[in-house]
Amino acid sequence: MLSLLCLMLFVPRVFSSSTPVAVIFPQDPALRMGSSLTATCTVSPERGLHANTMYWTMNGKRLPSSTYDLLSPNCLSVTLHHLNGSQQQSGDNLVCHSGDGHVLAGSCLYVGMPPEKPVNLTCWSRNTKDLSCKWTPGGRGETFIKTKYTLKYKLRWYGRERECEDYSTGQRYTCYIPRDLALFTPYEIWVEASNQLGTATSDVITLDILDVVTTDPPDNVHVSRVGELEDQLTVHWGIPPALKDFLFQAKYQIRYRLEDSTEWKVVDNVGNQTSCRLAGLRAGTVYFVQVRCNPVGIYGSRKAGIWSDWSHPSAASTPHSERLQSGSCEPKPGEQNSTLRRELKQFFGWVRKHAYGCSGMSIKLYDQWRVWLQKSHKTRNQIL
């Protein structure tokens, strides 16, 4: 097809006859980068053209006469050394002209490199209904000529080899298989790269669709205050709708950030619950929160699934501190202040520093604080 398109560009404009005005040899060659080429342009004798009046161009630029060689009255050659990669994947245009500039004949040069072995082949299935795979070209990835990548797959122990057909996902080096996939049996999947200079094949990966499942983000994510607690927010969400009828145990992750920050803090210890209390937050501050899901153990699969995308951000603000609102000052030295109030203040300060993620002010947390307080008192007494 490329050769046909290239030849159509070089239909002579002034000579009308079924006999070609001139012929270039070789026609549409494929060459490795760094190689040399000698091409000839032979004019039909009956045309009355003399080769010493002709000249050559490459991609519209006239080639120096020092590269020419007059082989006969009707044959002019050109020699090109150390060829660079083609400037366009459809080939470089090498054209022979008559002395008055008219096109006599043309050839497309495909100068590049054979493909290298594709790498980093990975696949995922959205809700077990389909399969998408992506890969990376081997080496530097640039062959300078058109290179075709074909994703192939087959059932491991039986079945015929098949080719993925949908490469229109909007991302390069990606293919989508929308249907007709078997569950509970492994597939062998690989990628073949080919161009006019050679072929290369990736390593074969083996996978079961149930082991590479991902899903939609959790829906109905809501963030709300925990009463008047100034340093906490509660997050609730729903199971991804597409997985409600599946037998699986989900894992969830939460991430949150301040309104004026781009740095996210990730909470990993959520487990399979669909709510979480975030503690240790700033008072009177807006937080953005997102949740994502990992469908673990779909139909008994022993492998972890693949994390979904993050949900759309949901936002809420923590209550303002009552002390800040009232404008009260810290007690002056010597003012009467009960031991309980002082220790509670220390406790809440310690909680803000140490309690984060899916956490509440539990008895366990209080016990940890008491240990810290005892160590603090012991250290202070030693200094005194």
UniProtKB/TrEMBL annotation:
<keyword id="KW-0964">Secreted</keyword>
<feature type="domain" description="Fibronectin type-III">
    <location>
        <begin position="217"/>
        <end position="321"/>
    </location>
</feature>
<protein>
    <recommendedName>
        <fullName>Cytokine receptor-like factor 1</fullName>
    </recommendedName>
</protein>
<feature type="domain" description="Ig-like">
    <location>
        <begin position="20"/>
        <end position="96"/>
    </location>
</feature>
<keyword id="KW-0675">Receptor</keyword>
<keyword id="KW-0325">Glycoprotein</keyword>
<keyword id="KW-0597">Phosphoprotein</keyword>
<dbReference type="GO" id="GO:0043524">
    <property type="term" value="P:negative regulation of neuron apoptotic process"/>
</dbReference>
<dbReference type="InterPro" id="IPR036179">
    <property type="entry name" value="Ig-like_dom_sf"/>
</dbReference>
<feature type="region of interest" description="Disordered">
    <location>
        <begin position="317"/>
        <end position="337"/>
    </location>
</feature>
<dbReference type="InterPro" id="IPR050379">
    <property type="entry name" value="Type-I_Cytokine_Rcpt"/>
</dbReference>
<dbReference type="GO" id="GO:0097058">
    <property type="term" value="C:CRLF-CLCF1 complex"/>
</dbReference>
<dbReference type="GO" id="GO:0019955">
    <property type="term" value="F:cytokine binding"/>
</dbReference>
<dbReference type="Pfam" id="PF09067">
    <property type="entry name" value="EpoR_lig-bind"/>
</dbReference>
<dbReference type="InterPro" id="IPR010457">
    <property type="entry name" value="IgC2-like_lig-bd"/>
</dbReference>
<keyword id="KW-0732">Signal</keyword>
<dbReference type="InterPro" id="IPR013783">
    <property type="entry name" value="Ig-like_fold"/>
</dbReference>
<dbReference type="InterPro" id="IPR015152">
    <property type="entry name" value="Growth/epo_recpt_lig-bind"/>
</dbReference>
<feature type="domain" description="Fibronectin type-III">
    <location>
        <begin position="117"/>
        <end position="212"/>
    </location>
</feature>
<keyword id="KW-0677">Repeat</keyword>
<comment type="similarity">
    <text>Belongs to the type I cytokine receptor family. Type 3 subfamily.</text>
</comment>
<dbReference type="Pfam" id="PF06328">
    <property type="entry name" value="Lep_receptor_Ig"/>
</dbReference>
<dbReference type="InterPro" id="IPR007110">
    <property type="entry name" value="Ig-like_dom"/>
</dbReference>
<feature type="compositionally biased region" description="Polar residues">
    <location>
        <begin position="317"/>
        <end position="328"/>
    </location>
</feature>
<dbReference type="InterPro" id="IPR036116">
    <property type="entry name" value="FN3_sf"/>
</dbReference>
<feature type="signal peptide">
    <location>
        <begin position="1"/>
        <end position="16"/>
    </location>
</feature>
<keyword id="KW-0393">Immunoglobulin domain</keyword>
<dbReference type="Pfam" id="PF00041">
    <property type="entry name" value="fn3"/>
</dbReference>
<dbReference type="InterPro" id="IPR003961">
    <property type="entry name" value="FN3_dom"/>
</dbReference>
<dbReference type="GO" id="GO:0043235">
    <property type="term" value="C:receptor complex"/>
</dbReference>
<dbReference type="GO" id="GO:0004896">
    <property type="term" value="F:cytokine receptor activity"/>
</dbReference>
<keyword id="KW-1015">Disulfide bond</keyword>
<dbReference type="GO" id="GO:0009897">
    <property type="term" value="C:external side of plasma membrane"/>
</dbReference>
